[in-house]
Amino acid sequence: MSVFPGTAVAPLPPLPERPSLNAVIRGTLDRMPSADTVDTLIAALTMHIRQLMPVVEAKDWAVHGQDEVVGLILDTVRAKLDAPPGPDTAVAVRAVYAQELARTCRAFLGLALAEPGDGVEVIA
Asked: What is the pLDDT of residue 62?
């Protein structure tokens, strides 16, 4: 598995041994990821976000006028995923990127579980 072209990171453990998505998010946000874990966290969070994106996109956000906001969020996240910090970037920068991905993953998990129109009176 490679996060950056030409760089290898440890493969994710088999599914039964993997921590839950919420555990990965919490672990990334609870403390600054270390040099030993940051690239693996980036790979795991990127994978989860890419799996959640189609679920979020498939919902009928237009019915409550939320399609433009959700579309903008999805486009912004795609751009972030397409331009990760390079392998020669400082560990602290990659760690902050991992934490941004963790927040994004948490938000997408919420959107994946939400129904369009939930909280529309707050958003509108």
From this structure: 87
Of the CA atoms within 13 Å of residue 40, those in its CB half-sphere come to 14
Q: How far is CA 11 from CA 31, 37, 61, in A?
A: 22, 12, 36
The structure tokens listed for 20 are 């839950």
Question: What residues does each domain of the chain span?
Answer: 20-115
pLDDT at residue 29 in the model: 93
Which secondary-structure segment (H or E) carries 71?
A: helix 67-82
Mean pLDDT by 10 residues, the chain (124 residues): 49 56 90 92 93 90 87 95 92 96 92 74 49
Q: How far apart are CA 123 and CA 70, in angstroms?
A: 11
pTM, 2 dp: 0.78
Dist CA 112 CA 123 (whole Å): 17
Q: Which two tokens stand for residue 88?
A: 């020669």
Render the burial of 27-44: b for 16+ CB within 10 Å, e for the rest.
ebeeeebeeebbbbbbbb
Scan for tokens 């598995």, then name that residue: 1
